[in-house]
Amino acid sequence: MTVSYPIKGDHLHKRFKNQIVLDDVSLTLQEGEIYGLIGPSGAGKTTLVRILLGLEKADSGKVELFEQRPTLNAFRSLGYMAQSDALYNELSAYQNLEFFASIQGMRGKEKKQRIYEVAKAVDLEKDLKKNVSNFSGGMKRRLSLAAALVHRPRLYLLDEPTVGLDPMIRRKLWTLFHYLKGKGATIIVTTHVMDEVAQCDRVGLLSEGKIIAEGAPKTLTEQYGVPSVEDIFITIEKEGAKK
Amino acid sequence: MRNLFAMARRIIRQIVRDKRTLALLIIAPLLILTLVWYIFGAKTSEPNLAIIHYESSDYLSAFKTSDYTRMSPLQARQSLADKKIDAYVDLKNPIKVHLEGSDPSRNGLAMSKIQKSMQTIQQLNVTSMKKQLTDVINAQQKGIQAQQQTMKQMSEAMQRYAPSALTSIMQNAPKTEQPNQANAPDKVKLDVSYLHGNDSLNTFDSFGPAMVGIFVFLFIFMIGGVSFLRERTTGTLDRLMASPIKSYQIIWGYMFGFGLFVIVQSFVLTCYIVYVLNIYNIGHLLDVLIIVFILSFSALSLSILLSTFASNELQMFQFIPLVIVPQVFLSGLFPIDTLPSWVRAIGNLMPIHYSTEALRNIMIRGTGFSGWWLDGLILLLFSVVFIVINVLVIRRSRPIAD
Ligand SMILES: Nc1ncnc2c1ncn2[C@@H]1O[C@H](COP(=O)(O)OP(=O)(O)O)[C@@H](O)[C@H]1O
Ligand SMILES: [Mg+2]
Fold first, then answer.
1. pLDDT of A1
2. What ipTM goes with this model?
3. Pocket of ligand 1 contains residue A41 by CB under 6 Å
4. Nearest Cα to Cα of residue A230 among A195, A187, A189
């Protein structure tokens, strides 16, 4: 059985001025998994995601999307949710989704149906007519997620999708992620909420530009003999200090 | 192409739903142009003038009561100090003018009025001299007539007593010619003809073409620049970059989307100044529209380009003194012939310079297509260059080839 790699980063290096943000990071996603990228704020999670997407150029290293060099067409199968909401505040929620669906090549009835579908998935179907400027932070976050889902991508890159959402909605979204995964999608999620970590198939721990540990959450905690993934950061830090 | 239209449609929706932007785009230029029209287009007010020491003057008739208040010297000096009058004329010989002097334009008005009166004085002088001359001539003619009378009597006497002597005298006498009637001096009057425009052309008429360019450019620049900047700062541009849309579709989407409002704005503005403010225009409305339209695109594409170098709205607005103000001064609003050549060279790099030239040709000089095609072409070139650079800039920030 050949395993396909929806996204692969190879020996990525990135520095901003004289600050090294990514220091030889390699990661490969398996099809159909939820990969959690965790690490303290400033660790370089966003930078890594942006490089994988081709929004930022790595100083060295290479990125493959669906086993080939990234092309514009590959973006059709890719849903990106940025850390900022990236919505048009003057437009209604519907018009926002309609625009993002259009530039992804969706047309007519299919587009319309799909918009209602994703709005329902993020619990915004009653707010579609509202102006985004009147949305609360959580509503914007959900609309932003809906915009990343609207064209049924196979690969999702979600940068802190649940930040600022209340636990109920957060749980609902994770149900959604598992549903998407069940339909064959691959998801990479950055987060620093630890109870979300347990829901990932695999996690990568990013600290100071390096992936310091990678694997299924359970395996990792057993390997390091700690109660939670969070503690791995502390353990490794201690080890580093000993050396 | 579909992506491009999706972009354009989104921008149109954004502007339509944002009433402030819409107002800024369409109504604000009208308001400002109206203001400018009031300032420059109003008939210049008459200067307030006075005369003193007029009682014994021969020239009083040149200073009509409606134009010159009669004042005592003390009164006049006081009024001048209080700025109630712009100048007063002292009619004591030699005539002296005292100006208030703090406002050059009022000085000019006062002086031109006074100079007109001085012309009348000269005419008065000429007439009185003519009258004196005529009197002298008349007196002389009377004397001559009397002499002729005497001569006639003498010759009658001679004919009677010495006819032969008379014949020889008559033959030797120089032939006298009746003096021609003295030619009346021609009335000195200037006959002015205008190659372009006419004498009712006011400051607004000549400023108008430049003003239209400046305001269209300013507002499109602000709105276009800010909306593209927002695309960057809110992250929606990243979302676009992570989609299959091509770089040129993003930029052209902007051009098309704004294009609609630019058409509406150009149309409303042009009709407003031509039909409501009645700016002097002998050219075709369509020609004016085309130039305003092309200019807007250069403003839009330039603003998108400069928004790359701004990281927030304030920084975008900081470009205005850099981009707009020099254009105002070098646009042709003020004569630039005397400026050093490097300043004029900078002027040649400014879109408004060309729109002003083109609009003056169309509206005031009435030259048709031949008068504006070159300026129009240059404006178009500006847009094309800016658009190409914009596409390249976006493409460069996108590691993935498109
Ligand atoms: N465009 C940039 N210019 C300079 N420094 C940057 C830029 N983007 C990110 N950084 C720096 O890179 C580091 C990692 O940032 P980021 O990837 O956003 O971290 P995270 O998403 O894990 O919080 C931070 O120290 C940040 O200041
Ligand atoms: Mg981040």
1. 44
2. 0.90
3. yes
4. A195
